[in-house]
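Section 5: illustrative case.
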């Protein structure tokens, strides 16, 4: 089918999302919760786009294209919403980028730089003393977690487990392991899929340098 993205007529498959249609035609839409190996859930709201005839912005990663749809990815309304959403995510994220092991690969840092966002005016909702060193392979720093749920989905979809879950509500929301048990548990022995797929430094694979580009390894093969 034919759709219009940023004024350009492009081809799209029937089952494509707006994000897929854009990517297949070389059009960049930023996102943080999206990963090509995981089902999209539209949590981060960074990929919001404007669709002709609709009053509200829509997340590109979970919105299917329709023939003749007219989509704008860089309108003033979209850019303002993206900046606001980024500032809200940064309020959940500690700002110690200079000493973070994932700084050079941090997707949040990249998207924030693209949107000219250096910090957030929202009150920080994460304590800097939320680092867990007990696991032998993974370092967990909840002060950097932006609740994108990639680790939750990777554990469920790639290794067929349910180790990570979402606990509490509002500003108290946390991603916890095995119903908030100790992270040193044998439950996730020898598995680092969650750390390999984390978009920032909330989960670090301590068995190798984060600066080295690595595939995501799970029981079914290599992604």
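Designed sequence:
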């Amino acid at each position: 089918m034919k759709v219009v993205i940023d004024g350009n007529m492009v081809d799209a498959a029937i089952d494509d999302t707006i994000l897929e249609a854009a990517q297949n035609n070389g059009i960049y839409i930023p996102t943080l919760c999206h990963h090509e190996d995981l089902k999209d859930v539209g949590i981060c709201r960074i990929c919001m786009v404007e669709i002709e005839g609709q009053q509200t912005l829509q997340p590109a990663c979970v919105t299917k294209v329709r023939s003749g749809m007219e989509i704008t990815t860089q309108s003033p309304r979209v850019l303002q919403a993206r900046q606001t959403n980024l500032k809200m995510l940064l309020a959940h994220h500690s700002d110690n980028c200079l000493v973070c092991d994932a700084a050079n690969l941090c997707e949040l840092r990249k998207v924030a730089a693209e949107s000219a966002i250096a910090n957030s005016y929202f009150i920080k909702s994460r304590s800097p003393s939320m680092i867990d060193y007990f696991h032998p392979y993974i370092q967990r720093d909840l002060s950097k977690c932006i609740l994108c749920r990639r680790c939750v989905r990777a554990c469920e979809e790639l290794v067929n487990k349910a180790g990570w879950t979402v606990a509490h509500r509002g500003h108290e929301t946390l991603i916890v392991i095995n119903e908030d048990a100790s992270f040193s548990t044998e439950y996730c022995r020898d598995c680092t899929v969650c750390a390999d797929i984390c978009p920032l430094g909330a989960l670090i694979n301590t068995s190798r340098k984060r600066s080295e580009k690595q595939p995501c390894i799970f029981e079914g093969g290599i992604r």
